[in-house]
């Protein structure tokens, strides 16, 4: 059968879609890129934010209207675990398959009647992965240890289940041989990797083992919550010094106010975050720190918001992802008194302007410098190329030469925006 897969959400979802694709191909099915030609359509959903969820629902409605009468529709991913009844109302004849059951996708595809695989646990003997050009996304764990009051992903992905290190190492070795130059180690929280294994492992040890694999490649460590990094800080700093590891740490703060962090049920303080950033920067020169901020979470008054503003100014955080809080069903935060939408929007605009100012100020320090860059992909809409510095700063190159993808080149930084650097090639 011909099968079309459409994916929404994070790198883990892309890896999950790749897992389904590989399993289907192994059974003799054909995975295609056009829904018009498909016998079956699979939509791999995301539910982390309300706006994303609404976009997914709109797309499912469209696909059902266009193809529902003559093609089978299978809905997969996080929404299946969190809102199965909503999906059933949308497409009564659709099959549902949760993230924990994706290894059974062939069973669902080959069934003559709708199937509903919602409960159960992940098969961690199979490692989902995704190779997009020279960039490989390698999940190292499923689920997390936290219970954040705003988070619906915890409901969808459930408890922490770490993939065995030998499976990860074997997989990365195959990816490097297949041409991967950037290995992105991903999870809901990479910082707690391995604490559920027997014997226990940790993120730093895993990254060192991956770095020891032969080949010319770089490792990017995915998002790690503060508590997990605090528990292995010295080791983590040594990992960031490794020549095969991007000097880049994505550590989500979420709020710069301790009272709001408590409402969020985050297990650290603002001082913990401050300490982490200063320790890492003090021992890893030119490291890039990225963080996430939720604006307008219940309990965030004007003082709490300004505390967030002030910590970002104080620490001059390189990259900040801002998200307006959105109510997620079945979460504790949804039951709390809510911040009015217009206030959330005002704070988001204020913070965005601040981040643009800080980012521009930080990036101007690179002007005129000569640096080695790993070219990883084509630019926006296929124009130009995108490279990465040693600290994962994005470098835009105004050239159209696909042969450079996957290669190291020398460039001179000529211009910048708050988000990236602009450069000219001086040596290939």
Describe this structure in words.
It contains 14 helices and 20 strands. A hairpin with a 2-residue loop joins strand 7 (130-132) and strand 8 (135-139). By secondary structure, it is α/β, with parallel strands linked by helices. The chain is globular and about 60 Å long. Strands 2-1-3-4-5-6 form a 6-stranded parallel β-sheet, sandwiched between helices. The protein folds into 3 domains: 2-117, Rossmann fold; 130-364, tm_1862 like domain (pyruvate-formate lyase- activating enzyme), CATH 3.80.30; 370-427, Nucleic acid-binding proteins (OB fold (Dihydrolipoamide Acetyltransferase, E2P), Beta Barrel), CATH 2.40.50.140. Helix 8 packs parallel to helix 10 (233-240) and helix 13 runs parallel beside helix 14.
Euclidean distance between termini CA atoms: 45 Å
Looking at the overall shape, the CATH architecture of the largest domain is Alpha-Beta Horseshoe
Number of domains: 3
In spatial order, strands of the major sheet run 2-1-3-4-5-6
What name is given to the CATH topology of the largest domain? pyruvate-formate lyase- activating enzyme
Q: Sketch the major β-sheet.
A: 6 strands, parallel
Q: What is the strand and helix layout of this fold?
A:
Blueprint: E1 2-7, H1 11-26, E2 30-32, E3 40-45, H2 50-67, E4 72-77, H3 78-82, H4 84-90, E5 95-97, H5 105-109, E6 116-117, E7 130-132, E8 135-139, E9 141-142, H6 153-157, E10 161-162, H7 165-177, E11 182-186, H8 203-211, E12 218-221, H9 226-230, H10 233-240, E13 248-250, H11 258-264, H12 270-283, E14 288-295, H13 302-315, E15 319-324, H14 341-364, E16 370-378, E17 385-388, E18 394-397, E19 408-416, E20 421-427
Parallel strand pairs: 1-2, 1-3, 3-4, 4-5, 5-6, 8-11, 11-12, 13-14, 14-15, 18-20
Antiparallel strand pairs: 7-8, 9-10, 16-17, 16-19, 17-18, 19-20
């Amino acid at each position: 059968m011909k099968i079309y897969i459409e994916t929404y959400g994070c790198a883990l979802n892309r890896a999950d879609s790749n897992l389904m694709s590989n399993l289907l191909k192994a059974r003799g099915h054909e995975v295609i890129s056009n829904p018009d030609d498909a016998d079956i359509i699979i939509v791999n959903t995301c539910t982390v934010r309300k706006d994303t969820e609404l976009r997914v629902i709109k797309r499912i409605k469209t696909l059902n209207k266009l193809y529902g009468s003559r093609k089978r529709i299978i809905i997969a991913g996080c929404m299946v675990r969190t809102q199965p009844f909503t999906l059933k109302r949308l497409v009564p004849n659709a099959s549902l398959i949760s993230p924990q059951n994706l290894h059974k996708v062939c069973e669902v595809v080959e069934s003559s009647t709708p199937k509903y695989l919602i409960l159960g646990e992940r098969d961690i003997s199979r490692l989902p992965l995704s190779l997009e050009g020279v960039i490989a996304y390698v999940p190292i764990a499923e689920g997390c240890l936290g219970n954040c009051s705003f988070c619906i992903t915890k409901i969808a992905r459930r408890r922490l289940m770490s993939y065995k290190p030998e499976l990860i190492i074997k997989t990365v070795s195959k990816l490097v041989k297949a041409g991967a130059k950037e290995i992105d180690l991903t999870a809901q929280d990479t910082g707690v990797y391995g604490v559920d294994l027997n014997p226990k492992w940790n993120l730093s040890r895993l990254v060192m083992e991956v770095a020891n694999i032969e080949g010319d490649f770089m490792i990017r460590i995915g998002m790690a919550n503060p508590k997990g990094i605090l528990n292995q800080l010295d080791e983590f700093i040594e990992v960031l010094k490794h020549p095969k590891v991007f000097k880049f740490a994505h550590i989500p703060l979420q709020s710069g106010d301790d009272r709001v962090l408590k409402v969020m049920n985050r297990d650290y303080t603002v001082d913990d975050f401050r300490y982490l950033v200063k320790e890492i920067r003090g021992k890893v020169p030119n490291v890039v720190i990225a963080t996430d901020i939720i604006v307008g979470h219940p309990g965030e008054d004007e003082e709490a918001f300004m505390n967030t503003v002030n910590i970002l100014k104080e620490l001059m955080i390189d990259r900040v992802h801002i998200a307006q809080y959105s109510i997620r069903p079945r979460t504790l935060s949804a039951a709390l008194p809510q911040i009015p939408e217009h206030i959330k929007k005002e704070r988001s605009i204020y913070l965005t302007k601040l981040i643009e100012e800080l980012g521009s100020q930080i990036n101007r320090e690179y002007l005129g410098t000569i640096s080695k860059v790993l070219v990883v992909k084509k630019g926006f809409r296929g124009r130009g190329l995108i490279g990465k510095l040693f600290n994962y700063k994005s470098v835009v190159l105004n050239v159209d030469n696909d042969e450079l993808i996957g290669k190291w080149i020398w460039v001179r930084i000529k211009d910048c925006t708050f988000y990236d650097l602009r450069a000219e090639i001086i040596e290939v």
